[in-house]
Design brief:
This protein is α/β, with parallel strands linked by helices and 348 residues long. The protein is built from 14 helices and eleven strands.
Length: 348
């Protein structure tokens, strides 16, 4: 009788252990010891419903699924951990493991990145992708390795438009006397507005809405998704669809942390990042189109789309920036960009 009771007790304890242990299993059913879990903090400065915000969440979910719960990517949007001017330092020190800053922000580490800030360098996303997925991207990536940074991917944001609170901006002369917020670390962006007769002030992204609504600056440049998600359009009654410059992101991981990861985990992260990058680029185009419609339908903004003739005026006014920054960016990168574009002379 005693043996029978012992058998049932052992059976009952086994069932309890199995069922309660399920709560600690990974998505593939394999139990993950909390001491072995790899936690990756992914910090960025934009809203969750933007192209970058959505791609970061998708990447986190897929990595957790594909590693069976061994890797947990924690996403921190909207500058909740670090602002524009703080996140690169935090990455290098290992306070966070992944960030995805705008390319302009990397000029503090390597001035060559200002190539991508030059106005009218690219005409469409196809040209951008050919450059960033090719030799230009490789050369820019190589500038980051000495800084304890391992680049993973280029993500799209889109082409920039200009908003302001004073008047329609149709011709270069319309910029005279206005003050615009520009991203930190880029001399090209400052000189861009000075070439148009305006003033420029560098400012972290998280401070822009307050500066616009408080009339500390008159305007700013950004993609449709950022103009909409950050509510800039609610305090900027004039928008010019200029597509004058490309804005993209670079997904970066702390190099020391990256090399400490097991090879199979690095492989999963790379494969997942490549897949998410393709998805993110499609989403960026879709979200920007959708947000543009929403901005127009809001009735809060007077929208002007540059004609071909007006665009030519802007290009002529901004053309001197290419020669001004050739020594900073490097002739080799500029020549490669011109070759890919194919529509402007390499020496112009």
């Amino acid at each position: 009788m005693l043996d029978w009771a012992k058998k049932w007790l052992l059976f009952f304890m086994a069932v309890v252990l199995i069922t309660t242990g399920c709560d600690r299993r990974g998505p593939d059913g394999e139990q993950v010891d909390p001491r072995e879990k790899i936690v990756i903090k992914f910090s960025h400065v934009v809203a969750e419903d933007t192209p970058k915000g959505q791609a970061a969440r998708r990447f986190a979910r897929l990595v957790q699924e594909r590693t069976g719960g061994r890797v947990e990517v924690q996403v921190f949007p909207n500058s909740v951990l670090y602002k524009d001017g703080e996140e690169l330092d935090a990455l290098q020190k290992g306070a966070v493991q992944i960030i995805a800053p705008t390319t302009s922000k990397l000029s503090s580490l390597a001035p060559q990145w200002q190539l991508l800030d030059l106005p009218y360098l690219f005409e469409n996303e196809e040209q951008v992708h050919r450059a960033l997925d090719g030799e230009i991207g490789k050369k820019l990536f190589a500038t980051l390795e000495p800084h304890n940074i391992h680049p993973l991917a280029f993500w799209d944001n889109g082409f920039k438009q200009i908003t302001n609170s004073k008047r329609p901006l149709v011709h270069p002369r319309d910029f005279a006397g206005l003050t615009f917020r520009v991203m930190i670390n880029s001399q090209v962006l400052e000189e861009q507005f000075r070439s148009l007769g305006a003033n420029a002030t560098q400012m972290p992204f998280s401070d822009v809405y307050g500066a616009l609504s408080g009339n500390q600056v008159d305007g700013q440049e950004n993609t449709m998704s950022n103009i909409y998600s950050q509510r800039f359009y609610q305090v900027q009654p004039y928008m010019t669809v200029s597509n004058h410059g490309y804005m993209g992101y670079v997904v970066l991981i702390n190099a020391t942390f990256w090399h400490s990861l097991p090879p199979d985990i690095r492989e999963i992260i790379e494969e997942t990042m490549a897949e998410v990058t393709r998805w993110e680029r499609e989403q960026a185009a879709h979200i920007n189109d959708k947000n543009f419609r929403q901005i127009k339908e809001s009735g809060k903004v007077q929208v002007h789309i540059l004609t071909a003739e007006e665009r030519a005026e802007w290009q002529a006014a901004l053309e001197p920036l290419y020669e001004q920054f050739r020594p900073v960016i490097g002739a080799e990168l500029l020549e490669e960009a011109f070759r890919l574009k194919g529509s402007r002379a390499a020496g112009s």
